[in-house]
Structures are given as C-alpha cells and as structure tokens.
Specification:
- The chain has 252 residues and is α/β, with parallel strands linked by helices.
- It has one domain: NAD(P)-binding Rossmann-like Domain (Rossmann fold, 3-Layer(aba) Sandwich), CATH 3.40.50.
- Helices cover 46% and strands 15% of the residues.
- The protein contains eight helices and seven strands.
- It has a seven-stranded parallel sheet, sandwiched between helices.
- Helix 1 crosses helix 8, helix 3 runs parallel beside helix 4 and helix 4 runs parallel beside helix 5.
- The two termini are 33 Å apart.
C-alpha cells in the first residue's frame, strides 16, 4: 500500500484521468476525495471505490470559485482529518480550430479552469500542508504546453502556464517539503478527445493522430493513474518541479 495513511483530493475526479487516479490512489490505501462539478458522477466514483473496500468521499466543487475550494478543503479535513496530496486535474478543452474562432467567454473559461483553479487551490490548501510539514501537489498539464500544435492556441497557452507554474511553485515550496510536479499526457481516451480532434472522433482522424506518437497509441487513464501514483508516493520524495511526459514519445 504505497499511499497508506494519506489523504488525497482529486479534482475532476468523476471521469477520465481523474477517475482513474482516484481509484488507483484508493487501491493503494489513500483516503480520496472525489471532487467534481458533476456531483452525481462524483458520488458514483466514490461509491465504486467504497464497494472495493476503499475510503472515498464525493464533493461538489467548481474549481473556478474560491468559496467552493474553501468548502472542499474544510470538507476534506472534517471527513478525513488531513490533506497530504492534491491532484489539480480538472480541465477545460478547446475545440480544435482557428484561434480567432474562440470567443472571449470560452477563453476566460479555459484559463479559469486550467490555471486559476491551481491558484485558488494553492491559496486554500497550502496552510494545511504547511501545518503538517509537507505534502505533494500534482498538476495536470499537457504535451500541448511543451510541444504546441495548431488549432489549440489558447489551450496550449493555458497548459504552458501550468508547466511554468509547477516549476515556480516547486522551487518556492521545496524548503517546506511540499513537492510540486506535473503530468503531461498526450491526448487520451477521455471525454475531451472529441474537442481536441475538432468534432466527432473518426477512425481516420484517430489513426492520423496516433501516427504522431512513436509508441503507436493514445494515452489511457491507467497510464496517468500510474504516473500520478508514483509522484504522490514516498518513492518520489526527492522529485519536485518535474513535468513528466506521459506521451509514448510524442515530445521527443
């Protein structure tokens, strides 16, 4: 049990990468708070974890709202008594297309969900981690922030901000034994895939994209969960400021 005795918050935990991370963490002994804007799905994930004898709690949370994050932190502490790990996984995609096709409202939403959410979470959870003398924060970035491609300009920029923010947080918080790392997945088998492809996912579109990945497949939630588990565990206790490419060689 690599996370036995730990408590983790996973945002965007009701589906895709977040769901897999929550399940993997619970299987390794963590008490997990599944936080999501879709409360019904968050409850379903928490119930599935409990059915396997794991410890999980579902929490309704809009990660762009400071009050929601504050309640999430308080709810986690009242339920499990600590916060050792935070996975900032909630994300907002951009529909693939010309950059000027993205309206201002969508631009604001992309940056609020992908970037501001980390700012808000940090403001509320950092005092807790400082009190217990350490912690692990994992941000979900993207290969889009490392190797941008046309059609996703604003999403690329938001994930580039996450990469820089991760390194900035890591260097500032290292003396306090609070580690900050990021995961950089290539496009994966999640509900956001259609947006990245610019619409319905056809076999032709998928095969064209897979051809750009040296290992010949998309990322899976399991890939992300395994990488997140290592970064959250004590096995990575000397690892901070790393933006780990979980991409089958896409960024080479």
């Amino acid at each position: 049990m690599r996370l036995k005795g730990k408590t983790a918050i996973v945002t965007g935990g009701a589906s895709g990468f977040g769901e897999a991370i929550a399940q993997r963490f619970a299987a390794e002994g963590a008490s997990v708070v599944v936080a999501d804007i879709d409360e019904a799905k968050a409850v379903a994930v928490a119930d599935a974890i409990a059915a396997k004898s794991g410890q999980a709690h579902a929490a309704l949370c809009d990660v762009t709202v400071s009050g929601d994050i504050a309640r999430l932190v308080d709810e986690t502490l009242s339920t499990f008594g600590a916060i050792d790990i935070v996975v900032n996984n909630a994300a907002m995609p951009q529909v693939n297309g010309p950059m000027l096709d993205t309206d201002e409202e969508t631009f604001d939403r992309i940056f609020s969900v992908n970037v501001k959410s980390i700012y808000l979470m940090t403001r509320h959870v950092l005092p807790v981690m400082r009190q217990i003398g350490g912690g692990a924060i994992i941000n979900t970035a993207s290969t889009a922030g490392l190797r941008p491609r046309p059609g996703l300009a604003w999403y690329n920029a938001s994930k580039g901000a996450v990469v820089t923010l991760t390194k900035s947080m890591a260097i500032e918080l290292a003396p306090e034994r609070i580690r900050v790392n990021a995961l950089c997945p290539v496009a994966g088998e999640t509900p956001m895939l259609a947006a990245f492809m610019g619409g319905a996912v056809t076999n032709e579109m998928q095969e064209k994209f897979i051809a750009t990945i040296p290992m010949g497949r998309l990322s899976t939630p399991r890939d992300m969960a395994n990488a997140a588990l290592w970064l959250a565990s004590d096995e990575a206790d000397f690892i901070t400021g790393v933006c780990l490419e979980v991409d089958g060689g896409r960024c080479i």
